[in-house]
Write a structure and sequence with these properties.
The structure holds two protein chains of two kinds. Chain A has four helices and eleven strands. By secondary structure, chain A is α+β, with helices and mostly antiparallel strands. Chain A has a single domain, classed as GHMP Kinase, N-terminal domain (Ribosomal Protein S5, domain 2, 2-Layer Sandwich). The longest helix of chain B is centred in the last third of the chain and has 19 residues. The chains are: A alpha+beta, B alpha+beta.
Amino acid sequence: MAKEGAPEKLIIDGKRLDGRDFETFRKFDLSVHVLKRSNGSGTFAFGNTRAIAGVQGPRELHPKFLQDPRNAVLRCRYMMAPFSTSDRIRPGHSRRGTEISKVTTDAFMSVLCPEDFPKTGIDVFIQILEADASTRCAGINAASLALADAAVPMKDLIASCSVGKVEGHIVTDLNGPEDMYGDVDFAVSMIGDTDKVVHLQMDGVITRDELSRMLIMAHKGCSEVYKNMKAALKAKYSSNVEGE
Amino acid sequence: MTGQNYIKKIFSEGKRLDNRKMDEFRKVSVETGILSNAEGSAKIKFGDTELLVGIKMDVLTPFPDTPNEGVLMVESEFVPFASPEFELGPPCEQAVELARVVDRGIRECKAVDVEKLCIEAGEKVWAVHIDINIINHDGNLIDAASIGAIAALLNTKIPKYDAEKGKVIRELGEQLPLKDAPIELTVFKIGDTLFMDPTIEEEDEMEARITMAITQDGNISAIQKGGTGYFTSTEIETAADMIIAKSKDLRSFLK
């Protein structure tokens, strides 16, 4: 199975290559309201994986035939910046990006109240600035902060994290080498700290028993992400009620 | 009562429009070797849902990071005669997702033995193109497409390759080497009810779906959740059990 360029071991003496325990996240880095020309914006980082998201809208949706007379139309767009990976990524459409954009949009539809803004479009642009695994999760978290910052009514925030299987161990928040040479990548998003899964994608092979264990670990992970996102929003808006 | 509310209501009473059980499939038919110009092919029907899968193979330069491995590609085409909602043009989100979910179901458990598809390391490898052509969309395309893909792969013979002339000779040779035959199935949710193999009327009302590929050993390879609703962890585990159980039944259609 060993691929070229793979480290000999990804886990040594119960520690991962970046020194973490199995259930420890990389360092979070979050910010809210970082873009002046977006209605709402946020950034979210798991270690070196960094995402930025901006919301335009709710605004009149063009072309008109795309409008829904009863609901807002949400369009999330996931993009990787050309310089976000070691090999340059060609800008523009990719099948991977299209799929992630779709599942991200579906995830947020579960908490949005689209009937509040009929005929409008809510566009969420997510860009990955640096990729070191778990990019779709960082992107969803950044989008969550951006939608909250834009004051788009939501039933709750969506929190996302990856878990995975590396050399037989179930771990939280895969890093780059674990994503590339590990066995399983399991990306999950949940509504707040509830146990409601609105997004789940897995690559790799697991047993039925591992599925249960990964769901438990993902729930813990999403709760931790959620706590941090809420704290960042509170820090931004409770100390700064008057605005900038 | 609107059609939408009616479907929700009868599901809440534990019934379906056509009186099937929640995990019961419509009549399944799988025919293979039906396209004479394809290296492998299958026609799948789940009730009125119908699609064709054709396998074509050609010779390509391998990707730099996998110089010894053949290339696997899945693409799908939603022809507008299959549904009034399909349109011509570049693949829609739904078509891209379908192809990528079918792709992952096959790729993640290494069903195709890509190392045996190397002709000359770093220079020439076989590419396996799996093309899914939707003929009639009456719900549950992912399951039909993935079973179609596996049935077609099992039916695939590698053409000959003339290395001197650099030409593929369309003369069927050995069986395509496979290491697994995953069955990829989906559980849908309306209200609190989990069910399988929806017709289009049922699928249009679904709140969420989850797809899992099950290997020959009964392990789970590749998962995709879709739809705008949610599943609890318990529901996901129930869905996994339904899919594992049903995958055993549907495996009998692969020969």
